[in-house]
Amino acid sequence: MITVLLFAHLxxxxxxxxxxxxxxxxxxxxxxxxxxEEHGWxxxxxxxxxxxxxxxxDEDLIKEGDIVALIPPVSGG
Length: 77
Hints:
Elements: E1 2-6, H1 9-14, E2 18-21, E3 25-27, H2 28-39, E4 48-51, E5 54-55, E6 61-63, E7 67-71
Parallel strand pairs: 1-7
Antiparallel strand pairs: 1-2, 3-6, 4-5, 4-7
């Protein structure tokens, strides 16, 4: 199982703060596609992805037990 944590407007868009993916492994690209197909997530949104608190790129492999975070951009004032 892979845990995907959602923050800010991503929580609102998908209606939850966490999604559980029943896969043993997949790439970041495959995760984005799965979220789009199954949850209606718009890949055009800017955000950062981390795997176990390390920034990730599309080719990185997510493994069973990993915690992925989708972090939208933040602004300060």
